[in-house]
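Supplementary Data S3. Sequence and structure tokens for construct A.
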Amino acid sequence: MWKKMKFTLKGEITFSKDATEAKEDIQSFIDDANKELLLRGLGNETLEAGAQITDWNITGDKLNLTIKSGHKIRAHDGLLRLKNPLSKIVGKKYHLGVRDMHIDTYEISIPTDEYSFNKDAALKFEQIENIQEEDNFVCFTIKDINESEIKKQTINRIIKQVATKEELTDENGEQLDLTYKMNSTPGEIVYRSDKFELHPVDDVTEEALKLGWVKQFPGKGQWFYGPKMTALERAIESILVEKVLDKLDFQECLFPKLIPFEVLDKMKYLEGLPEGMYYVSAPKRDPEAFDKFKQELIINHEIPIDLLKDGLKDPGYVNAAAQCEPFYEFLSHEVVDEKDLPIKCFDKSGWTYRWEGGGAKGLDRVHEFQRVEAVWCGTPEQVDKVRDATLLLSQDLASELELEWYTEVGDDPFYLEGRKVENRGIEFPDVPKYEMRLVVPNRDKGVAVVSANNHGTHFVEGFSIQEAHQHNIWTGCTGFGLTRWLFGFLAQKGFDKENWPKMVLDRLKDAKTPKVLTWPKQ
């Protein structure tokens, strides 16, 4: 059994006025929090993995706290969990408000048999002091952490910078499987395929352009996919649906692709990556504004952007950036019964849009791409099981197609930014995300084709999805990036059908490239 991180926090909660008269109710709240709130989300972990308030006192308008914890519910997460429920208890009866939270000192112990500690990196942080090594642990203190820094995950980012998780193996030196790994480090490879015969293409995009399979569209990160590329995409799509989603009894739906801000707000997407989406504005009901726009356009033969802006409302929508958004809205404020779970749906009806900024390049990094999105709701055990099943079946499929692949722990999903330690006791799995990548010959990094996610209660809380008996439910989603499957497939198998697997050829429809005298360019 590995040793885990340990945390000791000393800090305070500041009220709007002297809180002495509320001492008895605060005592009861702390007792209850130690029994439930600070242990919520432990799953199968022992109590030591949770958080506990071990000491406290009130001095004027301050509640001084010592919180000790294990690795699962870190002490600073626990501090944030206290804010809202404590406000409700002291607010109504004593007219006290919680004004601020602050950590004076935060002692962190990191096991050196599980993590590599970068002392040079630690010394660069002004807030870190008292670095000591003892009993197979590195201990250090982070001082003076304000509430904004706690909410922004500053502490966890500091830890990631100074401590790198070692690869975990069993007693025989074998790499541990997916269901055993907990709290893994992003980028850590957990599965890898066998080697297969490859027929690599140096530059898939250039070859596709030369053959007339695609043509670049004027919009950044957009492409016109010709008949032959589309036929291959449809063949791979049908294989994914048959070999993964049909096997798991997912039901097909048609999801909207224009997502209102009110849905995004429930999802916390705007806090996560607002710069990564396309925003949509509806026109005002003002014909005069557009008369001026049309008149200037006719005269100058240039689009008068300022006049166009005058005729538009403020943005109220985004083009779907994840594709799963409508599923949670479908269940919003609804009640489900555990006996009817899991609910499993998928959508393959259209495009997904993400603004990659300067990162768009070729056919593998685009702004507009095809996906199949599977999304489900169930008990925590069901959500984990379905997530792992979509991933494992995808891996089996790639091997059946004789494609080389590997699966790694994904970075924290962007929608969890600023929410992971929110003070409402939201539960998260140890590993929210796995990514499966197809190997791209002559590149260090493969192309991500499957993103398998377990959201915990993130969307259940945000959309007020309820279970009839108040039992715990989670959600999950797996995205299959069809555009990237195409790229990875062609990078490994090339454009010559003689080298393609029978499973693809059996589903491939005849397709003819349009004859155009001036295209494709030779």
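Construct B, processed identically:
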Amino acid sequence: MKIYKILFVVLLFYTWLNAENESSTTLNKIITSATGFDMALKDEARNVVLIDKNTLTNKGYQTLDDALKMSPLITFSNNGFGGNIDLRGQGGSANQAVKVLVNRVPINLLDSSHGITPLSEINLEDVQSIEIIPGGGAVVYGNGTRGGVVNIVTKSNKKDSVNINLKGGSYEVSDGLFGRADLSVGKNIGHLFLKADASVANTNGYRIGDSLFNYYLNGEALYSFNQNQSLDVNVGYSYSKQNTSPGISLAELKANRRSAGKGRITSENNFVNTSLNYKAKLSDKWDFDLLGFYQMNNTAYPYEITSVTQRGSTVPFDESGSRFFNQGAGGNLKLKYSANKNTLILGYDILYQNTSRKSNNHYVVKMPKFVLDKIVAAMSASKPAPKAMDFTPTTALDHAWQTDLEASKIANAIYVFDKYEFTNWFELSGGARYENSLYDLYDDKNTQASGPLSKSIKSGSSPHFTVDTNRNNYALELTPNFKYSDTGNVYLKYERGFITPSPNQMMNSDPKNGLSYNGLKPENYDTFELGYRDEYSFSYLQATLYYTLTSDEIYYNQIEHGSNWQYNNLDQTQRLGLEIVAYQDLFSDRFHLNESISYIYNEILKGINKGKHIPLVQDYKFTLNLAFDVVKSDNQLLSVMFNNAFYGPSVDNSYSKVDAYILNNLGLNYSFKHFRFDAGVQNLFNTQYFDYHLALSSDSFIPASYIPAPGRSYYIELRYDF
């Protein structure tokens, strides 16, 4: 996208600021993610994007991922195992560089190579709001916040309520139906508030043979001892079963985008997320917050058959029985001191994470006996006796290996964050964090090979690996904030943060030496940010310009799946970006606009890929969401909405170009008293794009392939809120 087009949009935003209309209340909305304490958005110097429930629901979305695709600033990166939330161009590192929280509980998984942040296991109907802090949070949240922090809030509004939701739809194919049902109940009993949610969904996927079944159960108990003390307990469980197939080739894609890949994959996922939060106002000056939590994610593959090319033959590759288990438990203790013009926060974090990976791998290569005899003779340097051609299929190689990985990480951290108001127009905030991480890693690989060609299989001299190590890191932040009016401010921010390696990244493997410790260092980054924010009589506008320089960025060189890979601190990268978010309510609050711009220039400055773009980073994302209230009264509302997201080009992991694309959704909402009806079309113009894209590959176990994203679909939704 040319820069003059961006400037034109900025100018358009600015001209809208001179109109007259009713005032909005964006700056008075409450957020919790910036410091961990509830605060009005206007009291936070940095730019934060708040996505409310109305933005996420009533638009036919089946999952949280679907809803966020049309939201400001957020993109998704997919390394082949699923999509991860991305902010500010983290690409393949998004699951380690964007911290995702549910009610301030981190849900990022420890296994970075196979771990996908389990967004699909969060019930969309249970989400109250989403708070996005782009590129911020290293002092308060520690490791892995280079891209930012996303806090998903599921807490209710403490009102007696019953909510029933039925949703259905279909792709433009006979076998493309999907639907879900949701029930939520909330009840106040004296000082105790109870809430329970249940959802079930069944989806026939866009590709032939794809399907997904899942259900969610969530509960909350909030007890208020008095106006100064409360205890909030949240428990969530979800289960999903997915049937799909591997990616398809370019030829198969051109013949039929819905084609199933060669093979079959069945996965089952169990996810548990619990938290206990005690809050107390100890005095007029002191606030106390204690958060304890536990989360577990278990993904099993009872059936997984893909394909591998060995010795010139493409044969089935069986990974059935593999399992990836991740769990985490921890706590966060905070004290806030507020007096006169000073606000001081002291905090301590502890996080224990454990991952267990069992990976099964097996394939068999067969070939005509006369061909095998020639290969064996060539390998032994002997001249075979002339024989008649024997086409009998003969096992040339039967190769299997099992990998058992057990790893844990304990992180302890202390931090201090302070804000001081020197005058009514200038304040200075900043803080520091020290974090120590202890690692324990064990990996055991067992290899079996039989057949005439089994001597070509090398398992290395060290198939068993163990290491205990630690890493020390620190984070800094300094933010001067200039408040030129009651609603407007301009701020500068410097942040120094870090990304610690995951345990699986600390070992390399090659056929000659087997597994070895690589001594990987944490990534360190410096972010410089200039931000602006203001609220006008009818409009809200925020803009951010940032530059992030990362040193010792971890480079992953996968030569062959399961046997030959290296992790090294080779790269230095830079990311220069612009972010603009705006909201307008026009014509007596009947016409609603929501626009955003996210533009990123990224480059690898050092390492073997110097001068290239960072893979899986889209150059830009623009959103333009419009809604017009045709009928609006106390009892009923008829509204038409048109949402648009423009995604820029990127490069995949082979540095092949991925084209830009546009998504458009059209919908109608009608509500009468407690009832609501919604209908619409998603991907209105049937845009063809990809969930996964790998144009080139030299790895025989991970071939070049594509997973097409869904085409046009239709939905209807009926909701009852009481």
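Helices lie at 3-16, 53-56, 64-68, 94-97, 138-141, 250-255, 369-380. The radius of gyration is 27 Å.
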